Amino acid sequence: MTDSELTFRQMALEDISAVIQLENEVYQFPWTDRIFKDCIRVGYDCWLAHLGNTIVAHAVISIAAGESHILNLSVTRNHQGKGIGKQFIQFLLNIARNKRAQIMMLEVRPSNIRAINCYSSAGFNEIGCRKDYYPAPNGKEDALLFAKQIP
C-alpha cells in the first residue's frame, strides 16, 4: 500500500452511494442501498476502509449473544490481493472482541477463491455448507460457512 496507511471509520448514510458503486463493481448480485441503510438503522457495525481519501473496502458485521457474523466484506477490484481484506478482517475481529464476541462466522461462495484464501490466511476454517444460499446466473450457488474463534 503506497498511497498512505489504511484507516477505518464507521459508515454513514452519506457514504451509501460510494458503497453501492464499490458493491456493483465487485458483485454480480450486489446489496442494494436499502440493505445498507437498514444495516446502519438497526445498529450493525458498518465500516469503511480508506487509503487516503479513497474508500477501498466496506464491511458489515452483526454482533450479538457472544457471536459475530461478517455479513458483507468487499474490496475494490484494483485493491484486491494487496492485504487490505486481511487487515480489515483483523480490524473487525478486534471490534467483535471488544464487544465480547467469542466467534466470528461468515459465508462465502465456493467460486470466490480469492476471498476463501483471504479468510483462510486470517485463520478462518470451513465448518459447513449452506445449500443453494446465493443467487447465481443459472439458479443458486452454495455457501461455504467459515468460522474463527476469537481469543
Model description:
- This protein has a 7-stranded mixed β-sheet.
- The protein has a domain at 6-106: Gcn5-related N-acetyltransferase (GNAT) (Aminopeptidase).
- The chain is globular.
- It has helices at 16-26, 33-42, 84-98, 113-121, and strands spanning 6-10, 45-51, 54-64, 67-75, 103-108, 125-136, 139-149.
- It contains 4 helices and 7 strands, in the order βααβββαβαββ.
- It is of the alpha+beta class and 151 residues long.
CATH topology of the domain at 6-106, anyone?
Answer: Aminopeptidase
How much beta, percentage-wise? Answer: 35-45%
Which CATH C-level class of the domain at 6-106 is it? Answer: Alpha Beta
Q: Supply the CATH superfamily name of the domain at 6-106.
A: Gcn5-related N-acetyltransferase (GNAT)
Distance linking N and C termini: 28 Å
Q: What is the CA-based Rg, rounded?
A: 15 Å
Mean pLDDT, to the nearest integer, reads: 95
Q: Categorize the overall geometry.
A: globular
**Biggest β-sheet description:** 7 strands, mixed
Q: Structural class per helix/strand content?
A: alpha+beta
Any descriptors?
151 residues, 4 helices, 30% helix
Which secondary structure elements does this structure contain, and how are they paired or packed?
Layout: E1 6-10, H1 16-26, H2 33-42, E2 45-51, E3 54-64, E4 67-75, H3 84-98, E5 103-108, H4 113-121, E6 125-136, E7 139-149
Parallel strand pairs: 4-5
Antiparallel strand pairs: 1-2, 2-3, 3-4, 5-7, 6-7
